[in-house]
Design a protein that fits this description.
Elements (H helix, E strand, L loop, with lengths): L3 E2 L5 E8 L4 E8 L7 E11 L1 H7 L9 E2 L5 E9 L10 E4 L2 E2 L5 H4 L11 E2 L11 E5 L3 E3 L6 H21 L7 E4 L3 H12 L5 E4 L3 H9 L4 E3 L6 H8 L5 E6 L4 H9 L1 E9 L12 H6 L3 E4 L5 H12 L9 E6 L3 H10 L6 E5 L1
Parallel strand pairs: 12-13, 12-15, 13-14, 15-16, 16-17, 18-19
Antiparallel strand pairs: 1-6, 2-3, 2-5, 4-6, 4-10, 4-19, 6-7, 7-11, 8-9
Helix pairs in contact: 3-4, 3-9
């Protein structure tokens, strides 16, 4: 059995979801122990993501029969495995959602989480962080400076890192025209990050007036309803005829995909970040290749992306202090889930605090 530095209680409180029964409850379970190359984190807060809601509601089939949800967490190192050298109890950290599998070719040469080709994801392959403690590999943690509250660091894990990763995928450059379809937590933060990157103009699109208003406050130059029948001509006009350099689709539906593709300019890039891609339109390849356009799918983020957004917040380039709508105790998880189901566009992130 691996030895650890740091003393842990025998049990802890955790939210447990039973797939077969469809039940979600706060339970007392054994506190996880760290293996030789693992770290146990005392969770300060963990976000409620739409993907958590979709698994609990049965829209996405969970892989585990009974598990602890939650994959956006930050906290303090509580215990470390015998071979862990980079972390010590008391370190403030934010947890990346994925950890290396330890078995692929990249892992066998020590590539770490960013090189792994078969990441093991929190709340999918193993227990998540709607709990007092969570365990992960030492390479899946990023230090959090004292200047950043741990609750804000939680927002960086997923809600900010994923859109930042999408910007990296798009190779966004200053003064490029950007459109963002879908202004939930991810899309709104992408608007904010695109502003930091110097994109111009930034066009935000969502059917909800409150979401459009929030995007304008986060850096969008223009906010439009995608139901507008003159959308294409309007965007062409705003971009002086050239169209969008980059379109980010967080909706992942045939309609949003078609709209974004229709307003791409020459050599434009369409990045599909939505988790429920439903493009049933046949044969778009010709229209794309004719204008040297590119469509690429983006999922998640790398540890390096998480390190970058921590740096941006620490240096004052990025402010996520207004991104937390509420912090609820674990016992009020049902309320948090319902608010996520019903949110009207003003809700960016709800957090659970053990």
């Amino acid at each position: 059995m691996a030895t650890t530095a740091g003393r842990l209680p025998a049990t802890m409180r955790a939210i447990r979801f039973d797939r077969a029964a469809g039940t979600l409850r706060l339970d007392e379970v054994p506190t996880p122990a760290a293996d030789v190359d693992e770290v146990v984190v005392k969770v300060a807060a963990c976000g409620i993501c739409k993907s958590d809601v979709r698994r609990i509601d049965g829209e996405i089939e969970p892989r585990l029969p009974v598990y602890t949800p939650g994959h956006e967490a930050a906290g303090v190192v509580a215990a470390v495995g015998a071979r862990v050298q980079r972390w010590a109890p008391g370190d403030r950290v934010v947890m990346a959602a994925g950890r290396q599998c330890g078995e692929c070719a990249a892992c066998r040469v020590g590539a770490g989480s960013d090189g792994c080709t078969d990441l093991r994801m929190m709340a999918i392959h193993h227990d998540g962080a709607w709990a007092e403690y969570a365990v992960t590999s030492e390479t899946s943690l990023v230090p959090v400076p004292d200047s950043i509250p741990l609750e804000q660091a939680t927002v960086l894990s997923g809600a900010v890192s994923t859109p930042y990763g999408a910007i990296d995928t798009a190779r966004l450059r200053p003064a490029e025209a950007v459109g963002v379809w879908g202004l939930g937590g991810l899309g709104t933060h992408l608007v904010q990050l695109a502003r930091v990157c110097g994109a111009s103009p930034i066009i935000a699109l969502d059917t909800r007036p409150a979401a459009r208003e929030l995007a304008l406050g986060r850096g969008a130059d223009i906010a439009l309803d995608p139901a507008n029948t003159r959308l294409e001509s309007y965007i062409r006009g705003v971009t002086k005829g050239r169209g969008l350099d980059v379109a980010f689709d967080f909706v992942g539906r045939a309609r949003s995909f078609a709209q974004a593709r229709a307003v791409l300019g020459d050599r434009g890039r369409l990045v599909v970040v939505g988790t429920s891609l439903d493009v049933d339109e046949a044969g778009p390849e010709f229209a794309l290749t004719r204008n040297n356009q590119t469509v690429v799918a983006h999922t998640g983020y790398r540890v390096k992306h998480l390190e970058d957004v921590v740096e941006l917040v620490d240096r004052g380039r990025l402010d996520v202090s207004a991104s937390i709508s509420a912090i609820l105790p674990l016992a009020r998880v049902a309320e948090g889930l319902q608010r996520m189901r019903e949110y009207d566009g003003n809700l960016l992130r709800l957090l659970l605090r053990p």
